[in-house]
Each structure stands twice: as structure tokens, then as C-alpha cells.
Amino acid sequence: xxxxxxxxxxxxxxxxxxxxxxxxxxxxxxxxxxxxxxxxxxxxxxxxxxxxxxxxxxxxxxxxxxxxxxxxxxxxxxxxxxxxxxxxxxxxxxxxxxxxxxxxxxxxxxxxxxxxxxxxxxxxxxxxxxxxxxxxxxxxxxxxxxxxxxxxxxxxxxxxxxxxxxxxxxxxxxxxxxxxxxxxxxx
Length: 187
Prior knowledge:
Blueprint: H1 2-20, H2 23-45, H3 50-69, H4 73-92, H5 101-106, H6 114-141, H7 144-186
Helix pairs in contact: 1-2, 1-7, 2-3, 3-4, 4-6, 6-7
């Protein structure tokens, strides 16, 4: 359910663009839908996630510039800025605190040794960097319609594939880490 709520603004943006063929109109719809989505999640969970706030801020700022200047390039940059901010956050977390951010977020649910947490963190950094770069490549090399399709289907597809691969990797290496930890405890 949360995944559907998180992707609702993208789905509505896509539908608005397909219905009107106009990126400015779709962006005009995207801004209040994203505000409503973040507000609804807050009212339900009583929490505001940093990722949602960053995305909302960028939708308002870059979407606002798109509408104000009648220039779709601002909203086309939003996925890249979000992805690169996350890549930078994940990278910087290696130098701030004791653990990479991915370990801080998932260590309660997943058992990995520190070397594997670093590998997982670098995988996320690479994924976010490539996703942001790929968004710009599609935006600059293909039509606006192709970019809108890529924004929904391409980015979502890449994310799902990455999560499946990550899940398989964690399943393999997480169980090894759990066994190693158990063996150390037993010794």
C-alpha cells in the first residue's frame, strides 16, 4: 500500500501528461498532488520521512520554476537531483558516524558484516548515480513523451530490478553473516 501511495504523484503526473500532452499542465497537477500525498502520509503515520520532504521540496521548487518560466527542463532535472542527492548522502555517510546510512537504516532487519554493508552502500551509491545520469540522458536525447514514459516505466523498472538483485544478494550474504555471527557466539 505504501508503495502505491509513494508512486501516486508519478502515476497522476503520467496520466495528466498523457491526457493533455503538456508537461507544464502535468507539473501544475503534480505539485498539489505531491503536497496532498505527503500530508496524507503524515496524517496516517504521524511521521515525515526525509526522502518525502526532499522530494516534495524539489517538486515545489523545480515544478514551480517549470510553471513560472514555462520551461519543462526544470521538472526533467528533478529525478536526477533527487537521485544524486541520495547518492551523495549515502557516500557522505561513510565519513560521518560509525556506519554507512544503509546499515543504520536496515541493520535491525538484516544481518551483514561491515564489509558487506560497505558493498551494499556502494551498490546504492552506484544505483542512484546511474539512475540520475540515465534520466538526463533520456531527457536530452529523446522526446519529451519518451522521457515521461521513462520516468514512470524505466525508472520504476530499474528500481524493481535493483531491489530484486539486492534482495537476492542480501539473502545469500545475510544468511552467511548470520551463520558467521552465530558461530562466533557459540565459540
